[in-house]
Amino acid sequence: PEVITVGDLANRMAERGADVIKTLMRMGVMATITQTIDADTAELVVQELGHRPIRVSEADVEIGVGGGQDRAEDMVPRAPVVTVMGHVDHGKTSLLDALRKTDVASREAGGITQHIGAYQVQLESGSRITFIDTPGHAAFTEMRARGANVTDVVILVVAADDGVMPQTAEAIKHAKAAKVPIIVAINKCDLPAAKPDRVRNELLQHDLVVEALGGDVLDVEVSAKTGLNLDRLEESIILQAEILELKANPGRTAEGVVVEAKLDKGRGPVATVLVKRGTLKVGDIVVAGSEWGRVRALVNDRGATVPQAEPATPVEVLGLNGVPLAGEDMVVVETEAKAREVTEYRQRKKREAEAAKQGRGSLEQMFKQI
Ligand code: GDP
Ligand code: MG
Asked: Where is this protein found (predicted)?
């Protein structure tokens, strides 16, 4: 169905009609400003022009609130988001636990910590680092598969007594594919059998050249067990973050990514969200994947209720009507009606995809029987 005029679409995106027409031409579609195009084409144009399309119905496309560009003067530095990867038993979990204990803020507050899928540490210097608390490349690739690129820096954990192993190589591959810079944490350096130089040489074979060997990859010899050089590892992350010039606009409507979600017996659906831009507030109407709700409460990584969450801050969101999937995006919308429209559309799409998959399955079944 031909539903939206080129002019109307341009208006919704706050783009010039001529630019929309040009984009259409590049896609092989000839249209004037008053002509109508179908929703599928509109969706492509919206993406081409750098906005985020939201399908509100089969026949209509809305522009996501995340569409607009931020002005340079509204951008402020934000904490880097770090994912820890590496071979099994090389110390990912131990390192995440040890890093968490370096948080000066929670030390002051008594050190009660909650596992919510991500946490933030504050360094003596005042800088902050956000760690995704689900180590391993399974979580990383699952999120990426849903289009969520939340990670700014990958910490590659390599045990100094074991060296580069298959999952180390896998992790390097994933980080490189995602174009995320790697910092190498050579772990278990407390052990007499530790051979950090061997690790550096083995990394060469995977095109990961550390500074000592003439490359630009930062590496730190650490021990999750004794706490050796954890401060240096954190300094390296901050250094890498400065190179990346990580910034976000806290003053806009919020957008984030679901890191983890579950159905809690007492609290209902709970999603841990990493705010990417804007500031998420209690009372906001949010759409997360194909679920929506009004934010009833926000709980931080120390179990404290907070009124709002700034960019790169992990926070538990209460008040959703259902459980979204890890890697799905969360956006704030203006009205409940809009939230309902978007999620109803997405749920229907999900059901259709599911039905199609089952259809294929039974078809394959049929062929097998023949
Ligand atoms: P993961 O599979 O990568 O999450 O590894 P874990 O954190 O579960 O650690 C695997 C094993 O290595 C555990 O027995 C840890 O106690 C041990 N381990 C982790 N880090 C260190 C370290 O820095 N030094 C020593 N000696 N042992 C460590
Ligand atoms: Mg582990």
From this structure: Cytoplasm
Q: How far apart are CA 360 and CA 35, in angstroms?
A: 38
Of 57, 41, 58, 46, nearest in space to 10 by CA = 46
User: How far, in Å, are 244, 275, 297, 312 from residue 282 at the CA level?
Assistant: 31, 13, 6, 17
Query: 46: which 2 tokens?
Result: 């919206």
Per-residue confidence (pLDDT) for residue 161, from 0 to 100: 98
What is the separation, in whole angstroms, between the first and last Cα of the chain? Answer: 39
Average pLDDT over residues 296-313: 95
User: Is 80 exceeded by the pLDDT of residue 366?
Assistant: no
- Who has greater pLDDT, 228 or 334? 228
CB of 222 closer than 8 Å to CB of 94:
no
ipTM score: 0.99
Sign of the alpha-carbon dihedral angle for 136, 139, 144, 148: negative
CA 90 to centroid of ligand 1, rounded, Å: 6
Q: Residue 67 — very low, low, confident or very high, per pLDDT cuts 50/70/90? A: very low
- As a whole number of angstroms, the distance between CA 90 and CA 188 comes to 8
**Considering the entire predicted model, what is its pTM?**
0.81
Please choose from 92, 94, 99, 131 the residue to mutate so as to test ligand 1's pocket, defined by most ligand atoms within 8 A of CB. Answer: 94
Long-range contacts from 225-229, C-beta under 8 angstroms, 24+ separation: 225/94, 225/98, 225/188, 225/190, 226/190, 227/98, 227/101, 228/189, 228/190, 229/189
Residue 318 dihedral angles phi and psi, to the nearest 5°: -110, 145
Residues with CB under 6 A from ligand 1: 86, 88-94, 135, 187-188, 190-191, 223-225
Per-residue pLDDT averaged across 232-246, rounded? 95
Report the alpha-carbon angle 10-47-18, nearest 5. 30
pLDDT digits (tens, 9 = 90+) for 246-279: 999 999 889 899 999 999 999 999 999 999 999 9
- Which helix (H) or strand (E) segment holds residue 299: the answer is strand 291-299
Buried/exposed code over 323-334 (b: 16+ C-beta within 10 A; e: otherwise): bbbbbbbbbbbe
Which residues have C-beta under 5 Å from ligand 2, the single-atom ion? Answer: 92-93
